[in-house]
Design a protein that fits this description.
- The chain is an all-alpha fold and 114 residues long.
- It is built from 4 helices and no strands.
- The protein starts with a helix and ends with a helix.
Length: 114
């Protein structure tokens, strides 16, 4: 019998792979394989390292990984406006949420050392 964390992890990674297959088929995002791998590591961290500094920093890194192809597409002047919206909103959510959580976690660590 598997633990609930492993079951959630397997479902999350399976759903993530299905989502990226849909992205590659319908072209509604600029994200590629690095974003997929970063999200898989993020789900593993969510299952086993929840509320740790590693989880928050990796989430921030995932937001940057999603944002980089968006910037590259802007400079290549793509006409895929749906992909701009999807990637822009997703990267904004990742960077703002995990940036805030990382900042708060670093403040707590700093207060505990003083």
């Amino acid at each position: 019998m598997k633990s609930p964390e492993v079951n959630r992890l397997i479902l999350s990674i399976g759903g993530l792979i299905c989502m990226f297959e849909a992205i590659s088929m319908y072209n509604f995002s600029f994200m590629g394989v690095p974003a997929l791998l970063s999200c898989i590591v993020l789900f593993i961290a969510l299952a086993y390292f929840d509320n740790t500094l590693f989880f928050y920093i990796w989430g921030l890194f995932t937001g940057v990984i999603i944002f980089i192809p968006l910037v590259i597409a802007l400079f290549n002047s793509s006409n895929n406006y749906i992909a701009y919206a999807v990637d822009g909103i997703l990267s904004l959510l990742f960077i703002s949420f995990f940036g805030f959580k990382t900042f708060k976690k670093l403040q707590i660590i700093k207060e505990n050392k003083v």
